[in-house]
Amino acid sequence: MENLIHIKDVRHAYQTETGPLPVLDGLEISVDEGGFVAVVGPSGCGKSTLTRLIAGLMRPDTGEVWLHGDIVKSPRATVGMAFQNPVLLEWRSILKNVTLPLEIVPTKLSKAEQEDRARYLLSLVGLEGFEDKRPSELSGGMRQRASLCRALVHQPEVLILDEPFGALDAFTREDLWQTMHKVKEKEPFTGVLITHDLRESIFLADQVVVLSGRPARTQYVLDVPQTGPRDLEHLYTPEAAEMLAILRHQIEIAQGRAPEGSPPPEDAGAPAEPAH
Fold it and tell me: At the topology level of CATH, where does 1-75+205-276 sit?
């Protein structure tokens, strides 16, 4: 299967008053077309920087970001993004918030077709009947559903999710996890999820990439055996417990709380193959 996204030996540093602050150090990540990769790691290790590089909002100091066989050098219309803060415009209805990207990204859809597509997506995520509401009239979970629709309305090849469910309560978050599987089944995309929730990573993704502490490199890659749609019972299986134990141990290594190369807990089972 073809890599739709390939992060190749990427290094990046931010300039500060005290000098360069390295955040990425030889980062290597590949995502197959139609795949869904979750990226986890310590706070401040460069996960959000990675999303901006993929979207073309910034360029690395060295190395390359490839998207569909082309080096990313500028913002790409084929990328959709959803963030922890939905940032919906209060003076626009939910329907008009969702259609906003179609006013920016070139489209052949008529105004009626644009609204039909937005209504379809809102129905898909359970917001049918809320099209004319204002953002302040919706709950946090509902606003995040609308934000997801806005990110998908222009049918992007790549969907970047930067901790979109992090501020939600546990029940709403789990409900949205299941919605994500439903959406991906109906609206295929290649996904990159940034998250601090290890349960979320193994429930949504086909593969979990663990970044090291800053400056980040690819420390570990875990393949999730069950791909595609799944239910919450998946999180309570022995296999899920094993994967979570492995990922927690890798995070401890990334945080410097466990020595690099140390084995996972004895009851975690055999680890996935480490990244090379």
Answer: Rossmann fold (3.40.50)
Task: Say which residues have a Cβ less than 8 Å from residue 202's Cβ, sequence separation at least 6.
Answer: 38, 208, 222, 224, 235, 240, 243, 244, 247
Q: Are 191 and 36 in contact (CB under 8 A)?
A: yes
Cα separation, 202 vs 204, in Å, equals 6
* Secondary structure class of 154 (helix, strand, coil): coil
Alpha helices for the chain (secondary structure H): 47-55, 94-104, 111-124, 140-152, 170-186, 198-204, 238-254
Q: Which residues pair with 210 in a beta bridge?
A: 40, 220
C-alpha distances (whole Å) from 215 to each of 22, 47, 235, 254 are: 5, 11, 31, 11
Query: Which residue carries 């940032």 as its tokens?
Result: 87
Residue type, 193: L
Q: Is the pLDDT of residue 2 over 90?
A: no
**Burial environment of residue 222 by CB neighbours within 10 A (0 to 12, 13 to 18, 19 or more):** buried
pLDDT, the chain, mean: 89
Q: Which residue ranges make up each domain of the chain?
A: 1-75+205-276
For the record, the structure tokens of 78 come out as 């084929």
Q: Which pLDDT tens digit goes with each residue over 69-122?
A: 889 988 888 899 998 888 899 999 999 999 999 988 878 888 999 999 999 999
